[in-house]
Protein 1
Amino acid sequence: MARPGNGVEVAIIGGGIVGASAAYFLAERGARPLLLESGLVGGEASGVNAGGVRQQGRLLPEMPLALESLALWADLEKRLEARVEYERCGDMRVVETPADAARLREVVAREEAAGLRLEWVEGAALRSLVPAIAPQVLAGTFCPTGGQANPLVVAAAFARRARALGATVWERCPVRSVTRDGHGFALDTLRGPARADRVILSAGTWTPGLAQGLGARLPVSLSALQMVATLPLPRVLGTVLLGVSRRLSLKQTRSGALLIGGGKQGRGDLATREKRPSVENIRLSAVDAAAVVPAAARAEAARSWVGLEGFTPDEMPIVGRLPEVEAYVAAGFSGHGFAIGPVVGRLLGEWLVDGRPSLDLSAFRADRFKTA
């Protein structure tokens, strides 16, 4: 239940897909969380990514989260009473050299052992699945459960539904600091002071600054990931393509635009939140897309943008309780948190209400980075 005088059971700092989904799942379970976002919900990394909902190409400790997310995504529009444009269109990693093919087969063996269903496709089967694929593409791994959704709407839909269930959402409300206050936490916000019995730090690449005020250090660094969208083309892709040797993700939206990502860098500033695409990387994105799908060479770039994302040294997120400060954290998703964000939010809700999450999150503890 809510506390008087801006006091709440749980304050969630950061309105990305993780924070907004945590607010929803807490509210669904009867809690009345306060979600605080410095800008607009979903306005940072969660809303400016490629929208991929993929399982393949992940580090193996993330695989249970990725597989668990499938049922959640399939039911999301019904849960949220909103369109999120999720479609399970499949995705495919593509290889262009025998050496890459050999390395990918080794990866596939490990992923299949972890429970992921994959299909190795080449020759006529490859061309049938992706007729527009370039001649030099030798093979690929098709994951029929891969998909995509619209990142512009998902976090906001979670926040709206959370509010309808009793959560409080403060947008355009930066949290200047978080400190311990007796058995709880004191928050200095743009709207004034607030208190919470418990706190979740899910502010993306800004999370370490909040944690530092509590005396915790988190190894999350800034990465300025760049995306490119083209003007619409006739339909050339029905599935999402992922590069192996190339830093490339390529999908075609419902409007016909090609969306090109994959990890190329723009420029960004953590303090000012200013972002600027790299002109050279716009060109390289177009080169990579056309090399894999020659029809992409006909597309004209319409716009490019940058999202500020938090990366950890091992490129796996930090999710868990910080025992030294008794706060919860979910950050450092390293450019691939959109797909697993809702299930992480659900697990945080379970943890705070039931006392433990239904999946083992020990691989994502913050203290894995501590040296002996």
Note: The domain at 91-144+221-311 is CATH 3.30.9.10 (D-Amino Acid Oxidase; Chain A, domain 2).
Protein 2
Amino acid sequence: MSDQTKKISATELINLIGSKDVPVIFDVRKKPAYLESGQILPASSWQNYETIDNDLDVAKGRRIVVYCVHGHEVSQSAATRLQEKGHNVQFLEGGIEGYIEAGGPTASKGTA
């Protein structure tokens, strides 16, 4: 992780969900972890953390938050890759597990 890679706390993100300032949110959990889970953050979409920096026109010029299971290597790696491409990106401290523990709302993923 770059020293400049920023993090966002679960509480900060919870306060942004549903507001006009909500960032683009990417679930970057490894595919097996994503497929095993029934929960996602509201309005998030899954992206492969290894190739997330290839083409993100949808997020061009917008604030991005990435999250994985615990907020460690996977999301930090994705955040660093995006930061190196010039995106305004943060990783979710504690990942989806920390977010749920903090009382953050989730959505059912349905079948993938």
Note: Helices lie at 10-16, 31-36, 73-84, 95-101.
Protein 3
Amino acid sequence: MTSADAPPYPQLLRLSEVAYTWIRDRLVLLDLRPGEPVNEERIAAELGMGRTPVREALKRLESDRLVVSFPRRGTFTAEINITDLAQIFEVRRQLEPLAAGLAAVRADEPEREQLTRLLGDLEAPSSGRQTFRELMVADLRVHRSLYGATHNPFLEDTLIQYDNLATRIWGVFGPQLSGAGAHIEEHLPLLRAVIGADQHKAARLARQHVIGFEEAVRAVM
């Protein structure tokens, strides 16, 4: 079999990964609103690819609980189910401190430099003038960087999935909170603890951050 005869599986996988990441972040940031139908053709056109990799991406996103599919009706963005709140945070209360502690002792030099840059961005005077969507993006960047620094891909994948679900909840209720900016500022001592390799402090601050977030959301439900 020549290379021309070989099925284009590697290319398909690359395209489906691009589609997955693009759609996932649109869902998490609520650019695709809860309950909205997902238009495969429009997404494929925006990404400049066929519908097959988009369909593959949507299958993964369904397993992530970010979209739901119905026979003969199509695919829709998942609704924000507040009854899931307790279960989502039950997991995060345990795993976020674990991840922060591991990141504090396992992060390599380039990762600590990246975390230092994130810390600088959050400390910049302009950070106080960010829109709510910009705050959501900043929050995602911090959490995903910490998860990557654990050097545990199983923990990283799990926490990204749960953080995505939690971020969608924050996207719905966050604008009603008076201290949305303070939620982001809580990352400052956490990042310093991780950069400084203080495992126990990083774990404690991560747990406090998750508990405070859950309490704040419940207060406006």
Note: The chain has ten helices and two strands.
